[in-house]
TrEMBL record:
Belongs to the cytochrome b5 family. MAPR subfamily. Residues 63-159 form the Cytochrome b5 heme-binding domain. One of its GO terms (cellular component) is membrane. GO terms for molecular function: heme binding. SMART domains: Cyt-b5. Residues 28-58, 167-186 are annotated as: Disordered. This is Steroid-binding protein 3. Transmembrane segments: none annotated. Keywords: Signal.
Length: 186
């Protein structure tokens, strides 16, 4: 085989391969840019909503733990309430999270402070007595209380908390944490 014949043979094989490669590259979708415009991006849905500035003034309506059970999300005509450290929040706007059969329904219609502090979804932990929580779990519980306070309307307070929790709450409200004197740091 002469070099001219070899050249023709290689050319015949390469032309279809080049044609197919070109066609494939032109039909491939363009790579997705990590700097895509924000107008095209869909917002990510999260249960962690932003703090609200349109909350109603807090109410101080008294609830017993038995009364609170009526607001567990099982009756669509009633609001859904969650109590944390005795503060009752209206979480009806997040029925997709706290409603009947939903992921956090375990806390609906009750004070589940201990479970929130422990980050537990066990029914046995969703109780109001958080007196045995360690300092780290109490911080988590306080963070949850702060989170709810910024996002949900306060509709009342639980009046029949366990005695040990009630005593703790009264002691902490009578003796607030000391405020540091800002001028002492000068």
């Amino acid at each position: 085989m002469s070099s001219v014949d070899l050249f023709k043979y290689v050319l015949v094989l390469l032309l279809p391969a080049a044609y197919l490669a070109t066609r494939y590259l032109r039909s491939a979708p363009p790579p997705v840019s990590s700097t895509a415009s924000t107008a095209e991006e869909k917002p990510v849905k999260s249960i962690m909503q932003a703090p609200r500035d349109d909350l109603a003034p807090p109410k101080d309506d008294p609830f017993t733990l038995a009364q609170l059970k009526e607001f567990d999300g099982s009756n669509p005509s009633k609001p859904i309430y969650v109590s944390i450290k005795g503060t009752v929040f209206d979480v009806s706007a997040k029925a997709d999270v706290y409603g009947s059969g939903k992921s956090y329904n375990i806390f609906a219609g009750k004070d589940g402070s201990k479970g929130l502090g422990m980050s537990s979804l066990k029914e046995a932990d969703a109780v109001p007595d958080y007196s045995e929580l360690n300092d780290a779990d109490r911080k988590v519980l306080d963070d949850w209380h702060g989170f709810f306070s910024k996002r949900y309307n306060v509709v009342g307070r639980v009046v029949d908390l366990p005695a040990v929790v009630k005593q703790e709450r009264e002691a902490s409200s009578e003796n607030p944490a000391p405020v540091a004197n800002p001028s002492s740091n000068l």
